[in-house]
Design goal:
149 residues, mainly alpha, elongated
């Protein structure tokens, strides 16, 4: 009886070890497949990069307005809004162009009329939000944080 139980134990142990090796082989195969995949890094479009730059610049201008500092001149790189390439080229439609024009007009007023810089700054943010509501809503919460109360 003991020999029979010992034999069963050896057989069960032998087969269970083989199953583990098969599973390990499957894992190795899966790992080797994943190593062959190439990592593709996301590259922002010209427009996305420009909007990030405009956001950062407006953060600085916001702080200057709040402190009452001089603002300098209108940043000419904002005019790239008319020529920067989009991630999705069809997004550069009449709706975008009209909103871009409004945005640039109001941005220029910030520098031309420093007494009303805060009002014009907030109007510029309104123009951003209006456009993003029609195109890509993702940045809206971030833009709203720039408002000057």
């Amino acid at each position: 009886m003991i020999k029979l139980l010992l034999s069963i134990f050896v057989v069960v142990t032998f087969f269970s070890c083989q199953k583990k090796e098969e599973k390990r082989g499957d894992v190795k195969e899966r790992n080797s497949c994943s190593k062959e995949k190439k990592f593709e890094m996301y590259e922002m479009s010209e427009m996305a990069t420009l909007m990030e730059q405009m956001y950062a610049y407006n953060k600085v201008i916001r702080n200057k307005i709040v402190k009452g500092d001089t603002l300098g001149k209108f940043p000419e790189f904002f005019n790239k809004i008319y020529s920067a390439k989009f991630t999705t080229p069809s997004d550069n439609d009449d709706f975008f162009k009209a909103n871009a024009e409004k945005f640039i007009e109001v941005q220029k007023l910030i520098y031309e009329d420093p007494k009303n810089a805060m009002v014009n700054f907030n109007k510029g943010l309104d123009a951003c939000i209006t456009c993003h509501q029609g195109k890509c809503g993702g940045p809206i919460p971030r833009i709203k944080k720039l408002y000057i109360q």
